[in-house]
Amino acid sequence: MTKPIILTGDRTTGPLHLGHYVGSLRNRVAFQDTHEQFLLLADAQALTDNVNDIAKVRNNVIEVALDYLAVGIDPAKTSICLQSHLPALTELAMLYLNFVTVARLERNPTIKDEIRARGFGRDIPAGFLCYPASQAADITAFRATVVPVGEDQAALIEQTNEIVRRVNALAGRELLPEAQAVIPRAGRLPGVDGRAKMSKSAGNAIPLSASPDEISAAVRAMFTDPDHLRIDDPGKVEGNLVFAYLDAFDDDRGMVEELKARYRRGGLGDSTIKRRLDDILQALIAPIRARRAELAASLDHVIEVIRAGTMKAREVTDRTRHDVTEGLGLFRL
Question: pLDDT (tens digit, 9 = 90+) per residue, 157-171?
Answer without folding.
Answer: 999 999 999 999 999
